[in-house]
Amino acid sequence: MDISGFALLCYGATAICLLCALGSFFLPADKARTSKKKAVEPVALPKGWIGGILLVIVLIQAAKMMPQSFYALYVANILHAPSWLIGATYAASAATLAICAPLWGRLFDRWQPAYTLRVIEGVTWLCALTLAATALANEWLGFLVSRLVWGAWQGALLPVAYALIANTISVNQQGFALGLGNSAAKAGALIGVVLGGIGMGLIGLANSFWLVALTYAIAALGIRWVRSFNTVPDRSTSSTHTYHN
After folding, report:
1. Where are the alpha helices (DSSP H) in 41-168?
2. 61: closest CA among 157, 177, 189, 149?
3. What span, in angstroms and rounded, lies between the C-alpha atoms of 204 and 192?
């Protein structure tokens, strides 16, 4: 933006989107299913479970997207950082998320959904503590470190929540359930951005990251509630569509 202004950023985003569309033409074709087995009757989604996971997604996405409203202003006005550093610190969390998400995924592949949800709750508490450290950082290096750590925790939240849906919902219901999950993520993002803007106006720019830390704490309590009051499917029995507490 410093070099060429905002318009070139939009043109660049357009080019990247076109490249994604072009890449889709080179995806391998779906293999035809030739199974002679009888078609499986549709199985009703476990309402308590899917509803709980959707709530988890809304909460963690609201907390994640809350800084969108004030991030650039905070780094520029509170940390007095140049524009390139705003982009670098913002990208830092995405970099550690990209690295850590597959590692988290391998761990969660070994665990039952109930234990996975327990770990997600713990990671959400760690996000609250990390964002508190972000709020306390008064220079850009400490702020950057907190962003890197936060990105590592992010790899264990939304991607794993989607995996929980995919691993515990009947195959013939996964498309619908994952669609609901995506809608929940967008709803959480919308809520987070709106609350971030309102919160910045109420408590001031300098204290905005404390609001994010508080939102993560509320999200962790919400996940705890989901764990306590919703039915959790066991992966070992999900193929027979039986569920237990």
Report:
1. 47-65, 71-77, 83-109, 113-136, 140-154, 158-168
2. 189
3. 17
The residue assigned the tokens 């940390």 is 79
Tokens of 229: 């009051």
| Residue 17: burial class (beta carbons within 10 Å; 0-12, 13-18, 19+) | exposed
Looking at every residue in the chain, the average pLDDT score rounds to 84
Q: Look up the pTM and report it.
A: 0.78
Contact 104, 156 (CB under 8 A): yes
Output the 3-class SS for 97-108.
HHHHHHHHHHHH
d(CA 20, CA 138): 39
What tokens does 8 get? 């070139």
Are 113 and 234 in contact, with CB atoms under 8 Å apart?
yes
Cα 148 from Cα 90, distance rounded (Å): 9
Residue with tokens 């550093």: 85
Could you tell me the domains of the chain?
59-231 (1.20.1250.20)
The one-letter amino acid at 62: A
Q: What digits encode the pLDDT tens for the residues 132-165?
A: 999 999 888 899 999 999 999 998 888 888 888 8
CA gap 121, 98 in Å, rounded: 20
Selection from 223, 219, 189 nearest residue 53 by Cα = 223
Q: What is the mean pLDDT of each run of 10 residues along the chain (245 residues)?
A: 82 94 89 55 59 88 91 90 87 92 86 85 95 91 93 89 79 81 92 92 92 93 81 51 36
C-alpha 232/C-alpha 239 separation (Å) is 14
**Residue 232 β-bridge partners:** 244
